[in-house]
Amino acid sequence: MLLVPNGSPYDFNKFDARMNLAVSRIKESGLPLAYVNQLGGQDELVFDGASFVLNADLSLPIQMPAWEEKIVFTDWAREAKGWVCATGARAAIEEGDEALYLAVVQGLRDYVTKNRFPGVVLGLSGGIDSALVAAIAVDALGADKVHCVMLPYRYTSQESLGDAAECATLLGVRYDTVPIEEPVTGFAAALEKLFEGTQSGTTEENLQSRTRGVILMAISNKFGSMLLTTGNKSEVSAGYATIYGDMNGGFNPIKDLYKTRVFRMARWRNENMPKGCLGPQGRVIPENIIVRPPSAELRPDQKDEDSLPPYEVLDDILHCLVEEEMSVREIVDRGHDRDLVKRVEHLLYISEYKRRQAAPGVKVTARNFGRDRRYPIVNGFRDQDV
Questions:
Q1: Per-residue pLDDT tens digits for 168-195
Q2: What one-character DSSP code corresponds to residue 371?
């Protein structure tokens, strides 16, 4: 028989790939195969377990669970054609949003516990990304190890204040409010003479994000809890994140999840209690956070779609560029506007320097930023689509 101890990291399509490889080896050798896979998180990688046995006739007598440590005894008999494993435990393997959720929970839990952090802290803005990260953190570590902080400014809506407080209550976490009006005003005053005669814009908006980053890092330094960063893959791809601001942190559970997937996983978590998780049952993210238009709230009435295309469109273009490495022409042939594709491609390229300085995060796709997609920062080449 073939005994295959393995460290095969999880990604969204990995289970089928493993099974296909195992079938190929059995067809080549004519031998049964026991595939024994690692479980747990290691830096950006997360291993799902899901060990199995395949007989030489390609039947599946044993399927162990994913995301769960377990010992299973197997019974083998020597028959005329070789060793055969008797049918035993056959666990159902989680798929879709459930599998992705368990992956990011496992990855965060092991990153925090193996590095011996006492807990985590994060900024809870009232938006979907920080709400989902807070839920993942509670499910991974327990509410007593999660500290959420609201950092309001003059553009923070009452809606966001209420939604963040409700989310913290639903999750049962410690929740503090640290207004940033004074420090932001102080930074603006310090720069007033230097900036005299210039128009207020992105630089002044980023002062808000960087002020929040400084305060959250101070809380992390003072109490030892690791700061979680909460940017999704759509924002990280397009550079819609502030370096030394909301990108501050030691780990990002949703780094490899596009925005549309973040919304789906939030809805899924509200309707399901994942196995092995430590958070409360039922709704953990307020419905208003899921349904209202996303906004960074760095200026009056700001919406993400003021500067980015709708996330359904953006995420498909980004998936084509990042995971599929398709050309501009191929993406346009899918029905996307050429100018928009070129703009998104441009944003992707010019944001590489930010991603080099980003916190690690759980890898759940076939091509994450960092270990899988090694593009240079200095890069004169562009797809001219000719």
A1: 999 999 999 999 999 999 999 999 999 9
A2: T
Nearest to 90 by CA among 133, 116, 55: 55
Domain assignments of the chain as residue spans, ordered by start? 2-76+89-93, 97-303
How distant is the alpha carbon of residue 71 from its chain centre?
30
User: How many angstroms separate the CA atoms of 237 and 226, rounded?
Assistant: 24
DSSP code per residue over 115-161? TT-S-EEEE--SSHHHHHHHHHHHHHH-GGGEEEEE---TT--HHHH
Residue 126 CB neighbours (<10 A):
26
User: Average pLDDT in the 205-209 region?
Assistant: 90
Q: Which residue pairs from 317-324 have beta carbons closer than 8 angstroms and sit at least 24 positions apart in sequence?
A: 317/341, 317/344, 318/233, 318/234, 318/237, 318/238, 318/258, 318/344, 318/348, 319/258, 321/345, 321/348, 322/237, 322/348, 322/367, 322/369, 322/373, 323/365, 323/366, 323/367
Mean pLDDT (the chain) is 91
> Beta partners for 373?
369
Q: How far, in Å, CA of 6 to CA of 11, rounded?
A: 15
Give pLDDT tens digits for 30-70.
999 999 999 999 999 999 999 999 999 999 999 999 999 99
3-state SS string over 172-226? CCEEEECCCHHHHHHHHHHHCCCCCCCCCCHHHHHHHHHHHHHHHHHHHHHHCCE
Q: Supply the CATH classification number for the domain 97-303.
A: 3.40.50.620
Q: ∠ at Cα 210 (205, 214), nearest 5°?
A: 155
Name the DSSP letter for residue 251.
B
96: three-class secondary structure by DSSP: helix
Q: What share of the chain is helix, strand, coil (3-state, %, to 5)?
A: 40, 15, 45
Q: In the sheet that 2-6 helps form, which strands lie side by side, from edge to edge?
A: 2-6, 33-37, 52-54, 62-63
How far apart CA 152 and CA 174 sit, in angstroms, is 17
